[in-house]
Design a protein that fits this description.
Arc Repressor Mutant, subunit A, elongated, DNA-binding, homodimer
DNA sequence: GCTTGCTATGCAACGAGTTGCATAGCAGGA
DNA sequence: TCCTGCTATGCAACTCGTTGCATAGCAAGC
């Protein structure tokens, strides 16, 4: 599993509390790795016990105290070791694909609204990604001439991952159009 | 969760034993829903207790007996109810994306081989899909003129799901090319 | 003769992920 | 004034998914 590694990456990009991590997992990191606050708190505690992260209590006014976590040397080493681990299959879970095949044994037209809803969700996410890309990755994109300084690696890699998200959403929208066209073809017969 | 629903769909397409289901989950259904034989046996037992499936003991010569499962009325109803359930978010888990962002805090060039390996895996799967499409969905594809008979719904829906898999693999291959180009850009600096 | 590999089913244990609930103070709106 | 919602952390119970192991007979190759 890689939740701890996702947390390490996120904390290396910027230290923060469990709560802040949970919010990041709803946004940037969460686009390709979901986690609830429960999982995060539990894993953070384990990582603290293992010496992967350091904690600092930060009192706040008008709000509960928070614990700011940052990556310790052991955590960095653990991440590095995981990064060099070659293994990694790919497991996919597409409820919608199951539903589409299942629609053959039910009324297929009942699925149209569902598919349209999903398509809209993907359109929304695409718009969100594109806005983020325009915001974060266009201003300094002019200096791409010549080899990059190592300092830009973090940004470049974040950008290429975001491009992956954009490509994924575009593919999904196109495919769902295809699905709708297919459903419409034999829908009226029933 | 939807493993039971994936099993129902698979059994409706063709009744079979737990072992056969496990093999299907390595092929057609498994392209968008993975499951090991352990999960399948466990869930099948529960579904049997709930009256979702019927079992028939089939003695075989030279091989252990098998239990052939088929969908019962209750199972059909459960599937139908699930199909009409509108909810369904989307959770994604992309280890590779985490690794790519994590590479900013390690040697990025170490990731190149890993990414190349993944790209090859996606190429292989794409080739496999395309072969399956050519085999199963070209011969009778000529009769697409006019409205389809309901009998063709199953095939049509299987085909559109397969097209989704093909689109996904193509997108991944393109994206991994992009990732490799990005890694190569600042790789030599280190 | 031995090992490997396939069909076929299953248990036990663990780890990961989900859901419901609890606490607790503050801010803002109906 | 009450209700909703946000920050912030956490427990307990449950389900889901993974891994290792076990049985057992047959077939094929070395």
């Amino acid at each position: 599993m890689a939740l701890e590694h996702a947390i390490l990456v996120s904390l290396l990009e910027k230290p923060g509390s469990g709560y802040e991590l949970a919010r990041r997992f709803e946004r940037s990191i969460g686009y390709f790795w979901t986690a609830t606050h429960q999982q995060i708190y539990r894993v953070l505690k384990r990582m603290e016990n293992d010496g992967w992260v350091d904690v600092r209590d930060i009192p706040q006014q008008g709000r509960p105290d928070k614990k700011e976590y940052s990556v310790a040397d052991l955590g960095r080493a653990a991440l590095s070791s995981w990064l060099h681990d070659p293994i990694e299959p790919e497991s996919v879970r597409h409820d919608l694909a199951v539903k589409i095949r299942g629609a053959a044994f039910d009324d297929p037209t009942a699925l149209i609204r569902e598919v349209e809803r999903h398509r809209q969700a993907h359109r929304d996410r695409l718009a969100h990604y594109l806005a983020g890309e325009a915001r974060d990755f266009t201003a300094t994109e002019a200096n791409t001439a010549g080899p990059q300084a190592p300092l830009d690696a973090e940004r470049e890699l974040q950008h290429v991952v975001l491009r992956g998200g954009i490509a994924y959403e575009r593919m999904m929208i196109d495919w769902l159009d295809d699905v709708l066209a297919t459903l419409a073809r034999f829908g009226p017969c029933r």
